[in-house]
Sequence to fold (254 residues):
Amino acid sequence: MSRVALVTGSSRGIGLAAAKALAAEGFAVALNGPADDEELRAAVATLAASGARVIAAPFDVSDIAAHTGALTRIEAALGPLTTLVNNAGVGVLSRGDLLDVTEASWDRCLTINTKAMFFLSQAFARLLLSRERGPDFHAIVNVTSSNAVAVAVQRAEYCASKAAAAMVSRTLAARLGAEGIAVYDVQPGLIATDMTAAVIEGYRARAEAGLTLIPRVGTPGDMGAIIASLASGRLPYTTGQVISADGGLLVPRF
Fold:
């Protein structure tokens, strides 16, 4: 029986790269976006063309009531889930002085980046604990951010949401370790995605000048390879780890 993964926010970017890497490892994959739109269908077609077992799983992760039904539909199509990749996330509505942050932007970041991943992880864990599981490796891989620990004063609400999400990862790991479910927190640094398109060129020059120890910005493919490695159990006897996928950005030095 194949391993089955749900990757949230996987129409593009890091989520799609993770889905591709998991499919290459033999996972059946459910691709998620908030709606059954052209972008999600194109992502499914791309994976299907590679021979992967893949379905679209459109649902809004912030709709907590939709989680259990979505998981049930995925399992009906692909078989028992073994893996959850919480990748869906949003940035701030407007970069600027934290004294100007709006309640709407704060709530949006905390709802999608933290609350949604907590409750989807809860639904996933309950599902796994409700039944006998085979020998396959079971894992939750959360994609947070270097901003879980590094301040970006123009994106205070985003930083707060990712710091909270990082703690969610640790609490999940503490609860689920004895149950045979590993939990990891991947914290990407400077990654070239649609979300960072407006600023990444400036960071690219800074990375090449030494901001990162590896003198380049990261790619979605880099993140996908890391996520697939974790989900495949290639770090045995580990759980609760933070993977600083940032090219050495946050290594203290002087």
